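call fold(seq) -> tokens
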Amino acid sequence: MKNSLKDQIQAIQTLRQFWAKEWGKHPPSDADTDVQKVAFLSQVDDAIESLESINSPEVEEFAEGVVNEAQHQRAKWGEDHDANKTADQWVFLIGFLVTKASQAFRAERMLLDMSEEDDPGREKLRAKAEEQYNKGLHHIITVAAACSNWHRCAKKSPAKREG
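ret:
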């Protein structure tokens, strides 16, 4: 079973903490070893930051969000998952994601319509509406990311897609 990105990030952070602690117990024997340890920990920190960035939904910056979401989808599902999809399967996926965006914006509108000026629960309804609005924006980005991943797979020759 494939671990989620969150699990992978946690595992890397745990390893980083372990090695930082272990190396703290054993002083380096020479300056080169110390430099290597610092470089290693820096690379681990960069990997954690990279994984966290693709595992964080973006709704404000469209282009950045699409790139991160496309990477997130490939990391979550794997390259092989998309490689053998047919055009019809891609169309179904994109239609499903477009529908999710539409439903989120519909829910936002409904919640805003329900929030009357004198309603004591108005703020909760408005907060839920804001949540649905952000979901809708994110779903638009997931649609574009899915299109990006479809394009990536479609560029490969049929021989490459099969093997």
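The chain is about 80% helix and 0% strand.
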